[in-house]
Design a protein that fits this description.
The protein is α/β, with parallel strands linked by helices and 370 residues long. The chain has helices spanning 11-32, 39-52, 63-73, 91-98, 143-153, 205-215, 236-270, 297-306, 326-329, 335-343, 355-369, and strands at residues 56-60, 81-84, 102-105, 128-132, 158-160, 168-169, 172-173, 180-184, 198-202, 219-221, 224-225, 283-284, 290-293, 344-347. Strand 2, helix 4 and strand 3 form a beta-alpha-beta unit. Helix 1 (11-32) packs antiparallel against helix 7, helix 2 (39-52) packs parallel to helix 7 (236-270) and helix 3 (63-73) crosses helix 4 (91-98). The longest helix is centred in the C-terminal third of the chain and has 35 residues, at 236-270. The two termini are 23 Å apart.
Length: 370
């Protein structure tokens, strides 16, 4: 008899806990019929802005589109350079390249897997137009030194917080730490919808106004287009689902942190050769992923799979090693990203992951490492 498969992230359990409120919210949209930019979108924006602690939230169609909108708002275009990390999902570099700019990939800190602030300044040139740190795996990048470097050079900072909504940095929430914060509501994210979605955050009135225009085809008022834009609107039904999920979100964040701490303690005791996530003392993580470093990663993943334990790799190939970006980015050396990409593996995670399943996962990992 094969072992029971543990979900990589148990969205079904989350739905069962929230089912009455989710259906109530969805039915509210079906009743009023405003499927595009309905009242739930504005309600969500107000709730999220308050949660993050900023003046403005602009909901949008995906975490990829929020990055695109942010960069368009800041005037990034052909011939510009944007500094970012190579150890991230492709959307970060993709939106830079899509606008005709050049991504400049700076290596990461070996402990946090986030961009290393000490390596940013040497990458700045007269063509640099922005810095885009990624708050990877649920932990904010080291934003204070990044912002200080940006201030010295007159550059805006976009926090790519697709994985860190709900995390804190020195007591401040992710998405409210820089010129613009960008997050994703992809279903597996800490706050996820049932489709694509995302949001932008800023304290700058002008930037917020421009982002709202770009989101609706550059429209200043109906059928009057003052700038180039995109169709970047968040569906009203997704806003309704996210509003229902917000009611449980504080609990889920605490549970994710509890699960992350439990994993680390179990691995420390049972698998001392495994490198567990490092969380900076001034940070909290929402553990969008629980990613560890192992040797023989592919063999470990195969042996875990045979025991009903799914895994994922975030991310196996740094962006500056991807075929689409090798010629574009200029070949800057990123040895730490290369090493971590070869060893990283993510274990099942989520607020509904029980201790018994965690113990089973760690026990299976222990045997897989032998």
């Amino acid at each position: 008899m094969s072992a029971r498969l543990i979900p990589f992230i148990d969205l079904k359990a989350q739905y069962e806990a929230l089912k009455p409120r989710i259906l109530e919210r969805i039915n509210g949209v079906l009743d009023h019929g405003q499927y595009i930019m309905g009242p739930e979108v504005q309600e969500l924006e107000e709730r999220l802005a308050s949660y993050v602690g900023v003046k403005h939230c602009v909901a949008a169609s995906s975490g990829t589109d929020t990055l695109l909108i942010a960069m368009m708002t800041l005037g990034i275009g052909r011939g510009d350079e944007v500094i970012t990390t190579p150890f991230t999902f492709v959307a970060t570099g993709e939106m830079i390249a899509l606008l005709g700019a050049r991504p400049i990939f700076v290596d990461i800190d070996a402990r946090t897997c986030n961009i290393d602030p000490d390596k940013i300044e040497e990458a700045i040139t007269p063509k640099t137009k922005a810095i885009v740190p990624v708050s990877l795996y649920g932990q904010c990048a080291n934003m204070d030194p990044i912002n200080a470097i940006a201030d010295r050079h007159g550059l805006p900072v976009i926090e790519d917080a697709a994985q860190s909504f709900g995390a804190t940095y020195k007591g401040r929430r992710s998405c409210g730490l820089s010129t613009v914060g960008s997050t994703s509501f992809f279903p597996s994210k800490p706050l996820g919808g049932y489709g694509d979605g995302g949001a932008l955050f800023t304290n700058d009135d002008h930037l917020a106004a421009v982002m709202r225009e770009i989101r609706v085809h550059g429209q200043e008022r109906r059928y009057y287009h003052s700038r180039i834009g995109i169709n970047g609107r968040l569906d009203t039904i997704q806003a309704a689902i996210l509003l229902a999920k917000l009611e449980r979100f504080d609990w889920e964040v605490k549970q994710r942190q509890k699960v992350g701490a439990s994993y680390t303690a179990l691995l420390y005791a049972e698998c001392p050769g495994v490198t567990t996530p490092y969380i900076e003392p001034n940070n909290t993580s929402v553990f969008a992923q629980y990613s560890i470093l192992v040797n023989d990663r592919d063999g470990v993943a195969r042996r875990l799979g045979e025991q009903g334990i799914p895994t994922a790799v975030h991310y196996p190939v740094p962006l500056n090693r991807q075929p689409a970006y090798i010629d574009l980015c200029g070949g800057r050396a990123t040895p730490i990203s290369d090493e971590i990409a070869a060893r990283v593996i993510s274990l099942p995670i989520g607020p509904d992951l029980g201790l018994a399943d965690q113990q089973r996962i760690v026990s299976a990992l222990k045997s897989a490492l032998l």
